[in-house]
Amino acid sequence: MGIKKEIEIRCHPLMSWDISNPILSLKSRTKEDLKLLSELSKQNNWEVDFAKELAMSYQTLVLTDLQQTILWVNAGFQTMTGYTADYALGKKPTFLQGEKTSEKVKSRIREKLSKGRRVSETITNYKKNGLAYDCLITIIPLLDSNQVITHYLALEREAA
């Protein structure tokens, strides 16, 4: 089963439990995210400690290929952006950007990624309802056993 098919099967909507008990839900979602990423890591020979990476505070995860096409988003994506996983899959994360998105920030992100480096920035994105929000983003290049970048994982959260 290809990576995209594997990921699509595992995307599911929020349940009322997620809304009524956010602390337990967050822990549960983190475990689900870790489990899925660990499985994908085995399939793609990624050499990354996802347990360590996911210890960082995040609301949503976005997995892209090298062309930055979205292959998977976690359940927090819809909560943070208003867009469903089905809508996001196959698009580039730039669909979240708009008039207040800084060209300088985008340039710094591109520059670091082109050098194979991890990048952390704050970028202005837009929710489905059109509201702008500051998104704290960390993008991690995912390397295979030959130290070749095969994908990118973005950990994102809305700035307070």
UniProtKB/TrEMBL annotation:
What PROSITE patterns does this protein map onto?
Answer: PAS
List, alphabetically, the Pfam families matched: PAS_9
Q: Which residues cross the membrane?
A: none
Record carries keyword Flavoprotein: yes
Alphabetical UniProt keywords? Chromophore, Flavoprotein, FMN
Q: Which domain of life is it from?
A: Bacteria
Write down what this protein is called.
Answer: PAS domain S-box-containing protein
Provenance organism: Algoriphagus ratkowskyi
